[in-house]
Specification:
homodimer; alpha/beta; eight-stranded mixed β-sheet; two-stranded antiparallel sheet; 12 helices; 14% strand
Chain lengths: 412, 412
């Protein structure tokens, strides 16, 4: 996939490929149904001086844009829309290709004419979250008042803020409610927040491999990832130049996260103890001196894989944005300001398809099961996969079958 | 526990407490049986100019000492010894106290008069591994030729080298074989290596929460921990002064490791989303500027816990040693130079008690089960515990019952 750098983003995206190999392969199999074709990321202001965007934790901005893609046609009543919410390092580019021959968007096998999210029937909206670095206004964007990136001065934002920005965009597009709100991981948090905050807008929901409140375990993993970034001297308290990211720290943060997106079994079957035949100096630091230095070189394929994943992320993602987004995830607690979690969940009466993953290390299946049991009108489905958390970006046939049935049942 | 800094170690140990809270509490309950009492760590040369120590990957040293403790009396034939092998950041101080009132050694509830490893019957030997930083010669020791710490010039060493050093020490103490060789995690690797390399010395073995070859998953976790250390500018390619460790990097490495030593459930029940009431600036970095800076402060108890664990390790452990030891673990493959793993394991005919942990994230129970199934004369026991990998340092009553029965059956 190629995310084109846009004028407002301070980040140069220097590489065409992103994400994990399996996910990439899975996306190239388009699934049953037709193709969305060539798409373009659009951007739209959702605030101005007369209607600034207010952040949950304080602060406001007059200039906020949201990047988005749409597939299909909106009906006259504005009621046939489905909202797709992306995960931590995702973008609005869920389906189609930017140019012929590109690898398609991250959920392409599920979205298109005749596909489970059928663009002959639905108007599909996919946005880059508020605060993201794929076209929406965020820490990497230029502050119009200083002509410098916001960096660490960008207002703190939350999952609720992301949802409020999506709502402004949806209203401006003429959408009046969503047939479904769908997303995995951080996308699933947006799904749940939508359903709790604006139930009249959410006629059904599909939260996948997610949680209504971030666990100690998940907070801990984000904490060490953030520390990897801020420990990098190149981070410069967040005031690095756009072309001088803290690459070592961001790459390490990504490597830590990748382990939690995978599983013991998936890494063992893919890499085991395979050794690197040809070391790639560009995927690691310069060799260190001494006996120990030679021992620190990349020896095993798993090390090479983690290094590669890190390098790839530094080419496409902004370090400050990573800090803000992971903190928004850690802060996420659906019950905040709403009473007890079980009461909040019990009040969410729209049909819900909850999907868990049996090998998920980050959001264990038990969290998804408990979520499904706590929702009054839910169906639970488990993805059986060796791929861990990332299975929601890989196991398309399983997701397709369930999603198709769920959406069809809503119509009948 | 207090590990006294010794003259040869370049590392100052500035803090009395180490390890995890549960493990510490569990150790203070001494279990059934009498106490070992006050113990002292001793040191003994195992090489000299006439008989240098040769390392598996090349290199040799004339001056090598091993730190150790013993409990009980060796019998006339030198056959009543049990060897205790420690894990990554452990020491020879397995039982007893250094001073009255101290927290006892890391396996004290299992070792003593009348305890499962009964010092009325057995002569218990516990060593600090070759290359460790608790008294044995390692990267933190002074190189007698330069009067500087070896640092990154210390020879590369392996689990096999650790075992060979232990064997020299055991021979010098008059031991002729071990009634059992016992250890968890990296200690379990030593157990397996002992049994494969010197089966005539190992009359029985107890490998706990370990693996005969390090998995891609475990290598990956060690890889990111090492990268955290070498990314710290204070590491200085391994040539830091003894009182100027790369504390940020080593602390982060420890935090990453701690997550893998625990489990989703244990962290959730201990911390959940509890917030820090009184931030401890000394457990984290100085506050950062900007909106983002305030968001980077320690907000959740899990963050505070991970920061604390990191700070504690930097006070008692040497960063280069951490790099060497984790690489020795990653390199560990019992089959190296011995043929196929299943044949190697099938040839290890001594009675074995294999213990796995149902919540172990780092060495999943499946690894222990497979190990037990591959050994021809094994008993398998699973520790049922929420505590993850660290359960072998916490669940003493469960271990005690099984260990007592196993050792008694050997005698009868």
């Amino acid at each position: 996939m190629s995310e084109r750098p846009d004028a407002g983003s301070a980040l140069h995206l220097r590489h065409e490929t992103w994400g994990d190999h399996e996910a990439l392969l899975a996306r190239t199999r388009s699934g049953s149904g037709g193709r969305v074709g060539v798409v373009e990321t659009q951007r739209r202001p959702i605030a101005d001086a007369g209607q600034p965007f207010h952040f949950e934790h304080g602060g406001q901005l007059d200039t906020v844009e949201v990047a988005y893609q749409t597939y299909g046609e909106l009906d006259a009543r504005g009621r046939n829309a489905i909202l797709i919410c992306h995960a931590l390092t995702g973008s609005a580019h869920a389906a189609g290709v930017h140019n012929e021959g590109d690898v398609p968007g991250w959920w392409d096998p599920l979205i298109g004419p005749g596909k489970p999210i059928d663009t002959n029937r639905y108007f599909v909206l996919s946005t880059n979250v508020l605060g993201g670095c794929y076209g929406s206004t965020g820490p990497g964007s230029l502050n119009p008042k200083t002509n410098q990136p916001y960096g660490p001065d960008f207002p703190r934002f939350t999952i609720r803020d992301m949802v409020n920005a999506q709502k402004r965009l949806a209203e401006s597009l003429g959408i009046t409610s969503f047939a479904s709100v769908v997303g995995g991981s951080m996308g699933g948090m947006q799904v749940l927040e939508w359903a709790a905050a604006y139930p009249e807008w959410v006629r059904s929901m599909v939260p996948i491999a997610t949680t209504p409140r971030h666990s100690a375990w998940a907070i801990g993993l984000n904490d060490v990832a953030r520390r990897a970034i801020v420990s990098d001297a190149a981070w410069k308290d967040g005031r690095y130049a756009p072309d001088a990211q803290p690459e070592t720290g961001l790459g390490l943060a990504r490597a830590i996260a990748m382990l939690s997106y995978r599983s013991f079994d998936s890494l063992e079957s893919k890499f085991g103890r395979e050794r690197v035949v040809q070391p790639r100096a560009d995927w690691g630091d310069a060799p260190k001196p001494g006996v120990l230095g030679s021992m620190l070189s990349v020896a095993f394929e798993i090390q090479s894989y983690l290094a590669y994943q890190g390098v790839q992320l530094t080419k496409r993602f902004d370090a400050n944005t990573y800090l803000y987004l992971t903190r928004a995830m850690d802060d996420f607690d659906l019950a905040d300001g709403r009473g007890r979690l079980r009461d909040v969940l019990a009040s969410m009466a729209m049909p819900a398809l909850v999907i868990g993953i049996d090998s998920d290390v980050l959001y264990p299946e038990s969290e998804s099961k408990t979520l499904a049991e706590s929702l009054p009108n839910s169906t639970y489905h488990v993805l059986r996969s060796p791929h861990g958390h990332d299975a929601f970006l890989i196991e398309f046939p399983q997701i397709a079958a369930r999603l198709r049935r769920f959406l069809n049942d809503l119509e009948s």
